Structure formats: structure tokens, C-alpha cells
Amino acid sequence: MKKSLFTTWAAVFLILAGGCAPALYNASLKGNVDKVREMLASGADANKSYVGFTPLMAAAQAEHVRIVQMLLDKGAALNTTVAGGSNALGYAAGFGHDSVVQLLLSRGADINVAIGSVHGLSDQWAAIAATVLSDLKSSRAESVSVVGMKKDVAKKIVITENPKAKAINVAVMDLNTTSELTQAEMLLVTDKLVNSLVQAGFTVIERTKRDEILKEQGFQQSGACSESSCLVEAGQLLGVHKMVGGTIGKFGGANIIELRIIDIGTGKIDKTYSKEYQGDISNLMDGMAEAAGSFSQGIR
User: Fold this and answer.
1) What pLDDT sits at residue 187?
2) Residue 141 shares a structural domain with residue 45
3) Bridge partner residues of 249 (DSSP)
4) Which domain-ending residue is among 82, 116, 146?
């Protein structure tokens, strides 16, 4: 997806972050995970809006994936649309936040509602959202037709949350690739893995926070960090319980996924995930969801 420029609606979101907006809305917009968790645990209404804008819209527009997940878990309405604007899916698409788009779709967001909400709006982000969502709808329809399925591709894999995984802090390193996937596609696949791990119950460090900590600690690496020794070193610096990493390769016409989750305390591999996928990137997305579910269910 392309990133939009700073537009009128982006300015509106920032203005709404002022002191007069509800506390949950502010925290969601600013990415304050701890504050959002505290307020939701205390019974805050995940759907309480401010002049029509919901906390979910704010978190989606600002690309706070973890907060989007938390709000959805507390019953945030997926398809609520603000008058003269859009809904969470429309904002995520318009501002180029692939990981949020995939998460919302995986939780049942109606792509037709999002497309309808941005139709006719003049802002640049709305034009981008209309293009992105229409293309995504078309590509998903084609994928469904090819495999002869009636279900949406984004809903093929159901991830079951393991409550025991919530006590485990995990970080994911960007996946290595020896296939023809572009950097943007690899980031999308990695984000799908992160989101799936969150859905499976793990507490996952966001990419920006991961990079900040590793930079502060002077972490040095050449190329992708996919070897066990590199993952353990990074995990020790991040202070997490487990690290996830791996490679997507190419063999003939198939993509090969090789992932592992490593215990930082012991340095041993807890579990691996290996599978061959034919077809387009949507099948790799399914692989990320399957891997996360497998890693989560391995927690006893």
C-alpha cells in the first residue's frame, strides 16, 4: 500500500487528541498500550466515540496494532462509520497500514462497508483507500475462485487463543527470504505473523519498540537475524522470554516457510514450523496464522 500525505482528516485526528477528547480515545490515538489496557480492564466502553470518531478508528489510523487488537477483544464495533468520513478499515487502508487492514479483515470487518464509506470523499487518503480496498476485494475474490472456496481467504485460518501464552513476552525478527518476494511483501508477511501471535495469546513487542531497544543496546547484525544464535542474542537484549524468526524460501514453484520459536533462557528451540505453500502471498499469510497457532498451543 502507498502512504498518503498529511490530509484534512489526519489533521482532524490530531486535533481530537486534545485534552477534551475522552481518555480512552486519547490513549488509543497516542499508542499508550498500558493506559488502554488499564482502562479497558476497569470497564471503559470500547465504543465510546468523540464527535463520531471511535477509539478503534483512532488506533487504526495511527497504526497501533496491539491497541486495535485489545479494543476488538473488548467488543469494539468493526464497521461503525463516522459521518463524512470512514470506519477503522477505511482509515487503515487510506493511511497505508497493511498490518491493521489484515487484522481487521481477519476479525470480520466488512470490506464493502469500508469501500462505500470512502466513495465520493475528496481527501487523498480516501482515494488511496478506495483503490487499495477495491484491489484487495478483487484479489481475494480471485483467490477464492481459484481454490474453489466460498469463504474469504482472510478467514480460512481460525486462531485459538491460549490464555497461558499471555504471560509470555515474545519478539519477532523480520523474516529472511531467499524467494522473489519484495521487501514490502516480506514486511506484510512478518506483520501477519506478529498479529497472529497476538491473536494466539502472546504478548508481542511492536516492531518500532523492538528496533529502538536493539539500537540503544548497540545490537549489530549483518543481514537478516534468522539463525538461532542471533535470535537468542537479540532476545537477551530485548528482555523477552521467547524469540520467533525464520526464513521464507523458494523451491520450484512453491514457497517454503521455516519458522522457529526459541526459549531465551535455555537457548533451545521450543518448536518449529515448516510447510510448503503453492500460489500467491495469501497462502503465506495462512502459514503465518498456522505457525502462530502451533506455537501457542505448544505452551502448557
Assistant:
1) 77
2) yes
3) 256
4) 146
